Amino acid sequence: QLQLQESGPGLVKPSETLSLTCTVSGGSISSSSYYWGWIRQPPGKGLEWIGSIYYSGSTYYNPSLKSRVTISVDTSKNQFSLKLSSVTAADTAVYYCARNSNGFDYWGQGTLVTVSS
Amino acid sequence: DIQMTQSPSTLSASVGDRVTITCRASQSISSWLAWYQQKPGKAPKLLIYKASSLESGVPSRFSGSGSGTEFTLTISSLQPDDFATYYCQQYNSYCTFGGGTKVEIK
């Protein structure tokens, strides 16, 4: 059974860079059939797609976040990562990683990242 | 950017009711639409993909229809486990989620 697990700091200071990693187990991130994505959800609000990556490193990002987002992949560790720069309180959210197929079919449990000094 | 508009934002219903949620896209997305169910504190769960294909393991009381710009998610007979928030998502051009529909107990 495929499992995804987010990891990273739960508290980030304003103007700094948020960094999260998603570890995939039970399957290979190098599968040719899938992209791998990041989605976030501010407390009490809806879902926002951040971006997705293919195992080859090909990426596509939400245009509204593109200037601040970098997603990378490490196939040797079966992981992909998110960096979001110049964060503000508006970036406080639960961050999910997920497998991107026809929709997002496997999700991590999510990790709350709070932006605060 | 493609905008996704869901209606209603909140729906009150009883066990056994037939429930329909609508999702409208700001431009045609063909059938590149997914539906999710989310319960408090949990990750979303994929229910429907390609507008009308039922994800493996999802009960058959869930169904999806539509193409182009108008889509619906129908729950044929609402069960206690179905009280949750539902989201649509287009993946024709990048990815965009609808604002969500909360299904509450009447």
Mean pLDDT of chain B, as a whole number?
A: 97
* Structural class designation of chain B: mainly beta
Shape of chain A: globular
Please outline the major beta sheet of chain A.
7 strands, mixed
Oligomer: heterodimer
Whole-number radius of gyration of chain A?
13 Å
Question: Which H/E pattern describes the elements of chain A?
Answer: EEEEEEEEEEE
Strand content of chain B: over 45%
Helix content of chain A: under 10%
Largest interface: A-B, 22 and 23 residues
Contiguous low-pLDDT stretches of chain A (5 residues minimum) are none
What can you tell me about this protein's structure?
- The complex is a heterodimer of chains A (117) and B (106).
- Chain A has strands at 3-7, 11-12, 18-25, 35-41, 48-54, 59-61, 69-74, 79-84, 93-101, 103-107, 111-115.
- By secondary structure, chain A is an all-beta fold.
- In chain A, a hairpin with a 4-residue loop joins strand 7 and strand 8.
- The mean pLDDT of chain A is 96.
- Chain B is mainly β.
- In chain B, strands 2, 4, 5, 6, 9, 10 and 11 form a seven-stranded mixed beta sheet that branches. A four-stranded antiparallel beta sheet of chain B has the order 1-3-8-7, with no helix packed on it.
- In chain B, a hairpin with a 6-residue loop joins strand 4 (33-38) and strand 5.
- Chain B is globular.
- Chains A and B meet through strand 5, strand 9 and strand 10 of A and strand 4, strand 5 and strand 10 of B.
